[in-house]
Amino acid sequence: MPVATHGSVKGLTPIQIRATGAEMILSNAYHLWLRPGCDVIEAAGGLHRFMGWDGPILTDSGGYQIFSLAALARVTDEGVTFRSHIDGSPHALNPEEAIRAQERLGSDVAMILDECPPGDADRSTITAAAERTARWAKRAVAARARGDQAVFGIVQGGTHLDLRIESARTMVELGFDGYALGGLSVGEPRPETWRVAAATTPHLPSDHPRYFMGAGTPTDLIRLVGAGIDLFDCVLPTRLARNGTLFTSQGPVIIRNARYVADVRPLDEQCGCYTCTQFTRAYLRHMVMAREPLAVTLNTLHNVTYYETLMARMRSAIIANTFASFADAMLQETSMTSEDPACPA
Amino acid sequence: MPVATHGSVKGLTPIQIRATGAEMILSNAYHLWLRPGCDVIEAAGGLHRFMGWDGPILTDSGGYQIFSLAALARVTDEGVTFRSHIDGSPHALNPEEAIRAQERLGSDVAMILDECPPGDADRSTITAAAERTARWAKRAVAARARGDQAVFGIVQGGTHLDLRIESARTMVELGFDGYALGGLSVGEPRPETWRVAAATTPHLPSDHPRYFMGAGTPTDLIRLVGAGIDLFDCVLPTRLARNGTLFTSQGPVIIRNARYVADVRPLDEQCGCYTCTQFTRAYLRHMVMAREPLAVTLNTLHNVTYYETLMARMRSAIIANTFASFADAMLQETSMTSEDPACPA
Fold first, then answer.
1. CATH number attached to the domain at A14-233
2. CB–CB contact B274 A45 (8 Å)
């Protein structure tokens, strides 16, 4: 899912989002709740009509943003109080209100409110957060008022496999429409991320979507699909596009590099996106150097297409029963290593 | 002509430019000459292929930019020396090199190098600049090496009608493919602008395009078409779009105004552009307030469509012999007055 934090995948019209191959996008309930507000989006007929996107939308609950973006976040069993990162205004959110807000936004998939401990938290903090998330999950289930919106539970537990499995069992008992892995990609070594995912997914039903929140690099996607994950969101392809870092079948291209100044080849010969079929590396570099807004559009179009194409090829390989060999080949092609930066969420 | 200073109409793909109704665009030879350089664009197969635009392109010569943007511009009869506004590097341009550079860019219409005196220059300065522009025009004609590129002369003379008419006669004697009015929209009162244009166009052949450089507001376009002008360029619709000032059939809309926060009507009910048919004022305001790049795209799409539609309607009115009454009605509709800001070039 490309990320449309404020109800827009940065620089792309809905037509252009669709052209990347994306079927589903993610928006941040926290951001939309603060601005423009659920009342505005409800008055506009819901988030789909507001942003002109007729495909599925998943909204996150705001938990992660409150703990990472907002100021003075204070959490109790009742919920969270915090101050807006925009204007410092005080707000409160609890499990019921998180469901209610997402029902008002009208997304297709809502996420429960979870407590997200920092990446370096100790075991007792992580245990307490997972237990509180479990209590909040029960309240979220009880708060559901719409029959036409899926709700996903969130498995916490840090990198402690016993806590993860316990959390997964609790969520499955509550009976959600899909299950997410939260609290990963927060600074732990990448192989640890993949290991935790692989150890957790067997405890989640294979006929329900399994969603890894906030990953990642192409390598992460390949490893995590191998670990049983179906669904991802990450700002990496869009954010790196804005910085001029582009994913290609020959490895990453830093397009502002002087070597591309007169390079009239397509960015990626093997890519069929509008950017690669209509423009040269020289033009893409020029757009970045001249700080042209079109750079954002063309680069984002390409990077998201790269991600969507990678996912589509993995789906095909799974169906053809060739995933293992496909993954091996792709891990070399991407030239990305486990030292890659984690996905900034 | 929407303005593509660096080879991109800011925020629009070529497909989106076309969708506004624009048939022809303008690019700045000065900017492209400095970055990425004529050699790069020539290697890419010319400006059309470089930027992916298959319609006509007019390039200006760089004269106006050198006198307004570059540092330490020094002009002699030979030409101009100046320092780049990007990196301070020293450069020289003369009438022959200006033609040569535009031939290398491969634009459909090249402009001669002219001397652009400041808006508050006295009569003797304006006279000298017009005479030098005339001498440069002769050299430009002699320098032409391509048969497939039109070249337009530029009429100077400030707001002095006798100087304008003298300059027009000189240009017509030299025999260009079209004729431009330069050195206007530089701070003079708008009625003065229109009066000078109306007094000059009768001295330019009616079967050759007459181009007013750097205008303007919708009111300017209506007045200047009435004065016999065929062709315009201006950054106003694109620049105002980026500031969130949008032209509509009900007058200008400052989209960040709080009154639009929950306004779920289209920006302009009478406009058929993508922005007006797919999005609400509330969404457009939200995009601006959240500083989303999509705001640039959607707002620019609309403003350029507004301008192109206005020009198309004036063409129809001229053909139907109803221009005078159409112009009267439109001057009221635009709600723009002669106090409007001049076009920032």
1. 3.20.20.105
2. no
Annotated catalytic residue B233: yes
- Four-CA torsion B264, B270, B276, B279, nearest 10 degrees: 20
On whether any CB of chain B is under 8 Å from the CB of A46, the answer is: no
Task: Report the distance separating Cα A40 and Cα A7, nearest Å.
Answer: 13
B6/B26 Cα distance (integer angstroms):
10
Question: What are B198-219's pLDDT values in tens digits?
Answer: 999 999 999 999 999 999 999 9
- A45 interfacial to chain B (CB closer than 8 Å): yes
* ∠ Cα B172 B174 B180 (to 5°): 50
Tens digit of each residue's pLDDT (9 = 90 or more) over B105-136 = 999 999 999 999 888 999 999 999 999 999 99
Q: Do B282 and A52 touch (CB under 8 A)?
A: no
Distances (CA, A) of B243 to A150, A242, A343, B254: 39, 21, 32, 9
Q: Does residue B148 belong to the interface with chain A, where contact is any CB pair within 8 Å? A: no
Contact A31, A312 (CB under 8 A): no
Inter-chain CB pairs, A–B, below 8 Å: 114
**What is the Cα–Cα distance from A214 to A183, expressed in whole angstroms?**
9
Distance CA A176, CA A173 (A): 8
Q: Which two tokens stand for residue B80?
A: 């101009």
ipTM rounded to 2 decimals: 0.95
Fold for the domain defined by B14-234: TIM Barrel (3.20.20)
Per-residue pLDDT reduced to its tens digit, B159-194: 999 999 999 999 999 999 999 999 999 999 999 999
- Number of alpha carbons in the 13 Å side-chain half-sphere of residue A264: 14
* Domain locations in chain A as residue ranges: 14-233, 239-333
Give the predicted TM-score (pTM) of the model. Answer: 0.96
